[in-house]
Write a structure and sequence with these properties.
With 445 residues, the chain is mainly α. It folds into three domains: 76 residues; 66 residues, no CATH class; 274 residues, paralog of FGE (formylglycine-generating enzyme), CATH 3.90.1580. Helix content is 38%, strand content 7%. The chain has a three-stranded antiparallel beta sheet with strand order 1-4-8, with no helix packed on it. Strands 6-5-7 form a three-stranded mixed beta sheet, covered by helices on one side. Strand 2 and strand 3 form a beta hairpin. Helix 4 crosses helix 5. The longest helix has 36 residues. The protein is elongated and about 115 Å long. The chain starts with a helix and ends in a 6-residue tail after the last strand.
């Protein structure tokens, strides 16, 4: 009788606990297990049953948690992971003050005109170095496909001075060597030699001479090589002048502007796209840099034969675009914007032509790769459309202008002699790029 009372009391206590299984199932299981046990051991049997129940509950909960963790990790790794962000900067921190002082001292030696107005940015940069370890702002190591693994800037990057690793410096030096060698040897894949004479076109005289011109607009990869080399040489002030202003994408208010701002200049997918959003001063700096690097690897006796790399004049550009003075309005020696299959022959804005086409009907929503369309007769790519190319109206005055129109220009503006939509423009613009030219110096007899 006493045993029966104790058993009922235990069942009562069990009913007061949180239910894991139904009480009836638990009671039936308990009675089945205790059917053959002597009456003097009821408490021990009850403890074992409760222990087994608790153990089973713990196992179920643990297994469920493990499944949730696995599912969460699988979901997160299947998507693109944005670069790590800086934590909030504690300006009052004594550690940050020490870091910023050290960085300021280093940059002051590199650039005497450097001021402390970027102190907070420098502090964040040093924090990020500690946070990300060896993962710098620029990741320029060549991957297995021969591309540069350049990641987007991880924060407001306009005032950030990238810190390159020894490996990155070595890779950039290799890229610079290839770039300079191609110009020195006038590599046929990169440059074309044009021997043109003066000619008349639409009742106007154009003057042209022998020169070497790049087959494409200067690409993001080529310009990055220049930009990183400025850092390697310690030219920090020049770096900030020359770097692209990617905020210009936002001003266009397009659907792709945020993606273009973060990825266009740095991501490997855009390596062969024309560099844009740089000032005319920056383009001229690129020309001067390439001239200097070419001079360094040229034998002394041949240095006198090197002309300075520069932007073309309008006459030179028109001579090259028209393949020496042909009378067709477009570089492809035709009067139509489409070929016989109905495909567009340039990257421009068909919608502005009032023909009913959409912006991407020609194959590009914005810029396209530098060799996307068929070259003209002399082998120059995209002399019409894609990006309006910087030119000088003449060498004496160097009045700024552009030629060929860009991806937002209409069918009239992309003609060889079309109106200049960006006349006088010297500031960064998503529709303006440049192509380099080097005059050929005649050997003295």
């Amino acid at each position: 009788m006493q045993n029966k009372t104790n058993l009922d009391h235990l069942f009562y206590l069990a009913q007061q606990q949180e239910i894991t299984y139904s009480f009836k199932d638990l009671k039936a299981a308990f009675e089945k297990q205790t059917a053959g046990i002597p009456e003097h051991q009821p408490k021990r049997v009850n403890r074992m049953s409760i222990f087994k129940t608790m153990l089973m509950s713990t196992a179920v909960i643990g297994l469920g948690s493990l499944i949730l963790i696995i599912l969460r990790n699988t979901h997160s790794t299947s998507q693109y992971q944005a670069p790590l962000k800086f934590s909030n900067v504690k300006k009052a921190s004594a550690i940050n003050k020490v870091i910023s002082t050290k960085v300021h001292t280093r940059l002051k030696k590199e650039d005497p005109e450097f001021t402390t107005d970027r102190e907070d940015v420098l502090v964040r940069q040093e924090e990020r170095k500690e946070e990300l370890g060896s993962n710098p702002v620029f990741s320029t190591v060549l991957n297995r496909y021969g591309d540069w693994n350049l990641a987007p800037y991880p924060l407001n990057h306009h005032d950030v001075v990238p810190v390159l690793t020894a490996e990155e410096i070595a890779e950039n030096n290799k890229q610079k060597k290839n770039l300079v060698r191609a110009l020195k040897k006038v590599d046929k894949d990169t440059y074309v030699t044009l021997k043109l004479d003066s000619f008349s076109l639409d009742f106007k005289k154009y003057h042209a001479y022998h020169f070497v011109m790049q087959r494409t607009e200067v690409t993001n990869l080529q310009y990055r090589t220049f930009l990183l080399d400025l850092l390697i040489q310690g030219r920090t002030a020049d770096y900030f002048i020359a770097k692209p202003d990617e905020e210009q994408w936002i001003l266009l208010k397009m659907g792709q502007q945020m993606k273009l701002k973060e990825y266009y200049f740095l991501h490997t997918s855009y390596n062969d796209y024309p560099v844009v959003n740089i000032s005319r001063k920056a383009a001229e700096m690129y020309c001067d840099w390439l001239t200097e690097e070419l001079y360094k690897v040229t034998e002394e006796k041949k240095q006198a034969e090197i002309s300075a790399v520069r932007l073309p004049t309008r006459d030179e550009w028109i001579s090259a675009a028209s393949s020496g003075g042909t009378t067709y309005p477009y570089p492809w020696n035709g009067i139509y914007r489409r070929n016989s299959r109905g495909c567009f022959l340039a990257n421009f804005n068909p919608y502005l032509s009032q023909d009913g086409e959409k912006l991407d009907d020609d194959g590009g929503q914005y810029t396209v790769a530098a060799k996307f369309y068929t070259p003209n007769k002399v082998g120059l790519y995209q002399m019409s459309g894609n990006v309006a190319e910087m030119v000088y109206e003449d060498l004496s005055s160097k009045i700024p202008g552009t030629a060929g129109g860009g991806w937002l220009s209409n069918s009239e503006q992309i003609k060889i002699l079309g109106p200049d939509k960006y006349a006088g423009e010297v500031t960064p613009n998503p529709c303006i790029g440049f192509r380099i030219l080097m005059p050929i110096v005649k050997k003295q007899e």
